[in-house]
Amino acid sequence: MQMIAARLAREWLTEAVRVSNLTPTEIARRARLSPSALTRPLSPKHEGQMRASTLQKVSAVTAHPLPPSLGGSAPRDQAYAADPVELAVILAEIIPTGRVISGEEKADLIRKTIGLMRARHLIR
Description:
Elements: E1 3-4, H1 6-20, H2 24-30, H3 36-42, E2 50-51, H4 52-62, H5 84-94, H6 103-119
Antiparallel strand pairs: 1-2
Helix pairs in contact: 1-4, 2-3, 5-6
């Protein structure tokens, strides 16, 4: 049974809960897991690990894909899957720093960011 580090799993699980608009308890119920299997790892004090199978069940219920670093598979048309660090790099490349940007520039940056995130399968 593969175990996943707490911090990475907590970050992904928090995002899965957010995008699904379900409570951790409801996700656990639908995945046929104990509620504590999700509520405990969501606590910042929790330093244990999570089973990869638990994350896979949550992914199936929430339709939130697991990145390869947590046992998921890379998108079929890419040799890699993006992670939060990659997203930060994308944003750093396209968002100007040190100046105020106009409303139209903001809208353009949002469009570019969404396009890049979709292209890298970070969002649908």
